[in-house]
């Protein structure tokens, strides 16, 4: 019998590419991950890993088993959802991840509605950049998450996760007056922290317009960003959700660039009552998976 926890490690090795990355995702030591994968090889009776020096790759058998691991883990999620559906009423934890603008605009009314409809549901929310959400969903740290991506920064599909669309937003140039992106070439810029999707989107948008932004400030909260723009500290790109209370002196010019917000959850969890209830409060229709 193959151990499910070890199958999860193999699946994550196929996703992350290195034992060190798998260890970090699970807060294990690399040695512990290696030992568990070695035990999985003994269970399977076939070599799953090919080792060349310090480099580890999956053998054909390892890739096959990793693909089946996705199906096994999704089936377990579906089984858990089916069991949860037999209970009378929703209870227990629902761990939610969300990016800052969603925390401020989309989540509060949804949390109120969900709490009123299901008072025994234990809601907890964590503010996160979408870039760090997938591993937290895969390892069960989160149950659902609001994530976004941009047409300039698409997110690679993750076979362990499913998403359902919520909304598309326009991206604006925020400046002291009407301004095309190309006209901001010589302006100082306010960018999000490096490594965030918002930072990458702004850099790519500027590069597509023929220049690299000259960064003066870094700020991740769009209220702060717009306040800095109003204070004459630079220009920025902001999404529609962040443009609801624009300070005096800031003019927004729409761009063709779009941001897409989605609900993300583990494959197999679409029918879980808590996931369905959360999606319903946001007006999201979930497919199977």
Automatic annotation (TrEMBL):
- Gene3D superfamilies given for it? Periplasmic binding protein-like II, Winged helix-like DNA-binding domain superfamily/Winged helix DNA-binding domain
Q: Does the keyword Transcription regulation apply?
A: yes
Q: What is this protein called?
A: LysR family transcriptional regulator
Q: Does the keyword Transcription regulation apply?
A: yes
Which keywords does UniProt give here?
Answer: DNA-binding, Transcription, Transcription regulation
Segments forming domain HTH lysR-type: 2-59
Q: Which organism is it from?
A: Dactylosporangium darangshiense
Task: Please report which protein family the annotation says this sequence is part of.
Answer: Belongs to the LysR transcriptional regulatory family.
């Amino acid at each position: 019998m193959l151990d499910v926890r070890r199958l999860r490690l193999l699946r994550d090795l196929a996703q992350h590419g290195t034992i060190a990355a798998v260890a970090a995702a699970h807060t294990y030591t690399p040695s512990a991950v290696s030992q568990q994968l070695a035990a999985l090889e003994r269970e399977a009776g076939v070599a799953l890993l090919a080792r060349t020096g310090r480099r580890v790759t999956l053998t054909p058998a390892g890739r096959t088993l990793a693909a089946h691991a996705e199906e096994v883990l999704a089936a377990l999620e579906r089984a858990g959802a089916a069991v949860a559906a037999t209970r009378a009423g929703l209870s227990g934890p629902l761990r939610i991840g969300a990016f800052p603008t969603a925390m401020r605009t989309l989540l509060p009314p949804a949390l109120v509605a969900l709490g009123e409809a299901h008072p025994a549901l234990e809601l907890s929310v964590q503010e996160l950049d979408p870039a760090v959400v997938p591993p937290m969903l895969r390892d069960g740290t989160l149950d659902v998450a609001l994530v976004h991506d941009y047409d300039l920064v698409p997110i690679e599909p993750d076979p362990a996760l499913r998403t359902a669309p919520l909304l598309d937003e326009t991206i604006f140039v925020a400046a002291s007056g009407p301004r095309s992106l190309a006209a901001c070439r010589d302006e100082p810029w306010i960018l999000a922290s490096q490594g965030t999707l918002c930072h990458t989107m702004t850099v790519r948008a500027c590069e597509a317009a023929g220049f690299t932004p000259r960064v003066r400030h870094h700020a991740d909260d769009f209220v702060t960003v717009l306040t800095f723009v109003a204070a004459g500290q630079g220009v920025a790109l902001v999404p529609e959700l962040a443009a609801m209370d624009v300070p005096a002196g800031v003019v927004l010019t729409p761009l063709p660039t779009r941001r897409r917000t989605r609900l993300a959850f583990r494959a197999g969890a679409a029918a879980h009552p808590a996931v369905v209830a959360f999606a319903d409060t946001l007006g999201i229709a979930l497919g199977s998976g």
